[in-house]
Amino acid sequence: MLKRFIVKKNQRAALLRNGDFECILDPGRHYRFDLLNELSLALWQTDTPMPDTDLVDTLRRNDPAEAERHFLWMEMSEDEVGLRYENEVLVEMLPPASRRIFWRGGVAQRLEKLDLGAGAALPGAMVKRLLQPALRGRPVLGLNGVLVVQVPAAHVGVLRLDGVQQPLLAPGVTAYWRFNRDLQVDLVDMRWQSLEVSGQEILTRDKVALRLNLAATWRFEDVSTAFARLAKPAEHLYRELQFGLRAAVGTRNLDELLENKQLIDEAVSAHVARKLAGFGLEIGGVGVKDIVLPGEMKAILAQVVQAGKAAEANVIRRREETAATRSLLNTAKVMEDNPVALRLKELETLERVAERIDRISVFGGLDQVLNGLVTLAK
What we know:
By secondary structure, the protein is an alpha+beta fold. The protein folds into 4 domains: about 1-45, no CATH class; about 45-185, no CATH class; about 195-295, 2-Layer Sandwich (Tetrahydropterin Synthase, Chain A); about 340-378, no CATH class. About 35% of the residues lie in helices and about 35% in strands. The chain contains 10 helices and 18 strands. A hairpin with a 2-residue loop joins strand 7 (about 80-85) and strand 8 (about 90-95). It starts with a strand and ends with a helix.
């Protein structure tokens, strides 16, 4: 008939009669007469938010003073965000239109309200505290409501707030509230970048299929203009390089392209410069890396080159033969008028013949041998 209810120091309890709220029980031992077994106890921990908000609302309506004595409630409007501190340490960010209810007498709670209408950017001191949540002794709840933007060196950030482009973000760390707004951030590299246009199959004017690879260097000249006029500047530049390459190759014969690849570079550069004028992009250089011919065309060109080289070799050979014949004719004319030169030529011939003979037997004198050798040489 006499029931005992025990409430620990880190707990609070509500006494219920037939499931209806009767009163709040502080920590300690409590005794109640319960002849019909109508009483029960609901327990809650004081270091966590009060989950039974209906009970608190009932108590606030029926007995505001009792509710104020036991509970601390934190309520956010539609345009507010709350920073909840426990023992002066930030532990949670409360989103708009939310609330938390805590028991008094537990952990020291403090709420700091911020007006979302004052601006989207977080204070710099708070950004530093939120930059490395994993290194804190206790993680901060509700961080998904904050967008942290880290812009590296040699980059800028393009921030769009509700679809409206904002001033560029300099290198560094900034943070913005996600609540009640749409945020989009693009990191833009301000250094020179390379762009490859590979594997482009294009027909020349004389219907020869070529495969070309093109390379270009570019950078942002005016980031605000580029992102204001182009959704994706890099993709737009890629397409213009494609169009310029097809226009340069499709209007020229194969011989023109193979003779001077610089024509393609100049044509593509002129096309891209004309199309991207006023878009905030700067082109550093455009060049064809290689031109790949079909297999059968390679064989035909190899035959053409081989035939051309053979003709060149034949011309050179005929030229040398003509020069040699002319030299012999001049030598003959000299020997015809000079017997001594003829004698020296005979001795030279004898020397060349003697180099191939191991042993020589002379009969009838040296003059007879020389005459015979000369006759042999003729």
